[in-house]
Specification:
The chain is α/β, with parallel strands linked by helices and 256 residues long. It has helices at residues 17-30, 39-45, 51-60, 71-90, 100-106, 122-133, 158-167, 181-189, 223-228, 240-255, and strands spanning 4-7, 113-118, 143-146, 174-178, 193-197, 212-214. α1 (17-30) crosses α4 (71-90), α3 (51-60) packs across α4 (71-90) and α5 packs across α10 (240-255).
């Protein structure tokens, strides 16, 4: 029986990575580092989970720098990047992916609990949910487990295990929603079945072991119903929420 959905954030709730990349580059520019992460390079760096870890990895690869950066320097640089990302999100630059809002608004009405398990910071989660779902956006999730709260980030299972502990549920009663191979490995290592919604930076990754793989949540709904639920601007009507949840329930039951 499905009792909870556990969402990843970056790439799953929203296509955030281009906003993150822009925020990194602006923080680098403000700091006088002269670094510029283009899309191919950033795609490679996404194999390292966590923003501070990503910067440290880039340095270890031999990035040009006038003076060594300490762990404190990296933390300050990442904090500035997080603030810039928040500014981008606040202007409406990062909408939720198709079907996500409809699902989030309907699931609690159907008795399904909502949680987040992410490697991003709590500040990024708060900014995204506030900008896309309103002031009560964060309150729609009963549990939020963030990467800074656990010893190891994805693909380690730690953040999903923390979410399960806070929910007080066994993995078999939950379904993870992810977009990356690292996220899938993390969820599976925690004993969770996982639905993958491929994102811009993960579309070519290997998702063997996923309960299902789609391009977005609306794709779960049969063609005509899905098309009729889409607005002229590509938005998704609330009526699709029950249909998406029904299909996720069937996927979870098949995977159990």
């Amino acid at each position: 029986m499905l009792e909870a959905l556990i969402f990843d954030v970056d790439g799953t709730l929203a296509e955030t990575e281009e906003a993150h990349r822009a925020a990194f580059n602006r923080a680098f520019s403000e700091s006088g580092l002269g670094w510029e992460w283009d899309q191919p390079l950033y795609g490679q760096l996404l194999n390292v989970t966590g923003g501070k870890e990503r910067i440290a990895h880039y340095l270890a690869r031999g990035a040009s720098v006038e003076a060594p950066l300490s762990a404190e320097d990296i933390a300050r640089l990442h904090a500035r990047k997080t603030a810039i990302f928040g500014e981008i999100v606040a202007t409406g630059g990062v909408p939720l992916r198709p079907g996500v809002e409809a699902l989030i608004r309907h699931a609690p009405e159907a008795g399904i609990r909502l949680a987040i398990a992410t490697t991003t910071t709590l500040a990024n989660v708060e900014n995204l949910l506030g900008a896309t779902l309103g002031e009560d956006g964060l309150d729609r999730f009963e549990v939020i487990a963030a990467g800074d709260e656990v010893p190891a980030k994805k693909p380690a299972p730690d953040v999903f295990l923390l979410a399960l502990k806070r929910l007080g549920l066994p993995a078999g009663r939950c379904l993870a929603l992810e977009d990356s191979a690292h996220g899938l490995a993390s969820a599976r290592a925690a004993g969770l079945a996982a639905l993958i919604t491929r994102s811009a930076y993960t579309a070519s990754q290997n998702f063997d072991g996923a309960a299902a793989v789609v391009d977005n949540l609306v794709e779960l709904v049969d063609g005509d119903a899905g098309r009729h639920g889409l607005g002229s601007d590509g938005s998704v009507g609330a009526a699709l929420g029950p249909q998406i949840l029904a299909e996720l329930t069937r996927i979870a039951m098949r995977a159990a």
